[in-house]
Structure formats: structure tokens, C-alpha cells
Amino acid sequence: MSEHLRTALDLAASGVPVLPLRAGKVPFGNCTRCADNACGGRPNMKNPGSCVCPGPCHAWAAATTDPNVIDSAPWRRAWLFAGAVAYHPGGAGLTVVDLDNADAIAWAREHLPVTQTVPTTRGEHWLYLGRTQSANGVRPGIDIKSTMAYARWLGFGTGTMTYLPDAVRALASSKPTPPRPASQCLSVSAPAGGGECRHRTPAFLERGIAMAEQRITEATSGVHNAVFRSFLAVLSTHGRCGCLTEDHIARLFTAAQAKGESTRHCTEAWTNARTTLGV
User: Fold this and answer.
1) Residues near 108 by Cβ (< 8 Å), separated by ≥ 6?
2) Which pTM was predicted?
């Protein structure tokens, strides 16, 4: 039994939903049909695992406490190649405040109550008892992971977990609407029928945008390439159906800018992706 599988079973036994992560903190598509994001990727709250698979197999919706699933043949293979174990904080009744650098940690120490703390590669995870909505970039270097999100399991850390404070709930619910980049408009025309995504449903587009945001946000190296490939993936599927709006594109630009990309770099990546695909 691999170390990751053993950890996953131990966590599941304590009521923590788990899933395997590839190197780079990206979830597996836990069936062959979903390899390389073929089914559209990350599920949404209304329809978890809304691909054609018999069960949820993506990201937070795949997280489970069922040992029969965790030790099933498809997952057993994933554990062999996994880079880490992840868990769904909201499914365990928890919220993770992900502090990505020293400045973020300093802010948290001044404004948030002390709680259980887990060291990460670049910062700390602060764990609170209680769930809330998830949100990225609520402050510089700070993400909130709870419902509809997953976090890497890094151990139990130190300290005593306290109840989720209103200050964290306020951060998650009051993230300001980001400014729209000035040069991100599409020039493709909508297809007949009002521009509805002809590939599947509007939910399919939402999953694609959410997965692209997630891939950009979780890139730990090669951010330029991750941004370009994410833009390319969205445009290759939706660049000709007329369903992309400025709000969708602004979300992608915002995710890239939160990783340090300038508006110019975002615009160049978007233009290059369109040129590559001829859209």
C-alpha cells in the first residue's frame, strides 16, 4: 500500500473527504474517459461530477470518505502516481485560510484569531472549524478554501483549532469585483440560436472557466505557460460559439494577474492563443 493511499484511508476514517493530486497540485481525472479534461473538468455545486461518468471524478466533488472508492482499482493506480493527498475542507466542516507569503501571515496574525496552523512550502494554512464559501485572492497572498474547493493535506500542524470567525466569512463574501481588462474582447460571432454554447450547456462553459481559473491559480512554476495553455483550452472549446462574455474573460485575466501577470502579458497570451487557433 502506498504512503498516500494509507494517509487517505486514515483521513477518510476520521471523516475527512480525500482525493489524489498529481504533481503540481492538479486533480486526477479518475477515469479514462476524463483523461486530459475531456469531459469539461471541474464540477459545479448544482451538479457535482456532471460529466458522463457514473460517479463524481473531478476535484472537490470527487473527494470521498468511502474506503471502497479510495482503494478501488482506478484510484489505486492514481495513488501510485500521486504527488500528494488533497481533501475537501468544506466536506469536513472546515475552512482553510491559505497564506501564501510572509506579508499574508503577518496580516493574519494581526487580524484573525489564533487557530491550528500548518506550514506550507511558501507560507501557512490556518484551519478553522466551520465552513464558508471559497474565494481566491481575497487579499494579496490570501485564498479561502472551504466549500467547492480542495486543499493539499500537509499534516496536522500545531495549535488548537478555533471556530470560524466572522472576519474570515466577511473576506470570502466581500471580495471586490475585479476591473475588466481593456483589451480582452472576442471578435468571433455568436452562432445562430442566440449564442448558447452548442457543445453542451451553459454549465459546461462555467466548468471550463472554473477549471481554467483553478489551473492558473494553482500553477507553482511556469506561470506564463500555464496562463497561455489555460486561455488556449478555453478558446479551443468556446472560441467560436459566441458564448464567451467579457465577464468570463475578465475572470481569466484576474486569475492570471493574481499570479503576478501584467495586463500586457495577459493580453499577449490571449492574442497568441486566438492566433494559434485562428479565432
Assistant:
1) 97, 99, 124, 126, 142
2) 0.59
